[in-house]
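Service request form, structural biology core

Requester: graduate student, group of Dr. S.
Request type: structure prediction, single chain
Budget code: on file
Notes: please return the result as structure tokens.

Sequence provided:
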Amino acid sequence: MYTSVTSAKLTRVITVLFCVLLLVLMVFGPKLLSLYFGYLAESLTRKVLLAFYLCCPAAWAALISILKLMTNIIHDIIFQPQTVFQMRLLSWCCAYVALICLIFGFFWAPLLVFALGAGFMTLILRVLKSVMARATEIKAENELTI
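Core staff response, request fulfilled:
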């Protein structure tokens, strides 16, 4: 039967797969980009690689944050301050990636699409974080009520 715990476990498995994919891209990224752009656009390849490697710490932080969130959901630790913190961290990771992609989008225009997507994800996560923070406050107030 499909439950929220099953969904969280599936999300955790997919997140681990993304961790492996990110690691592979970090190792083989230069070769893949030189094949994609060709050796004629070496300066563009360096700029896109720089943008990618600048975004990698935020990607790792986001993936680890998602793993922690899913683990919390599996263990019924939902309306807690650490959940709000993980969502806040996710939103800042997206904001950081949006900024990097916006800056490097002046060198390679498709990065502007990534900047727009990451910026939109920042907005969505900030709203969800605010809802979660408020729900956490209400839960804390209700626990104090006799």
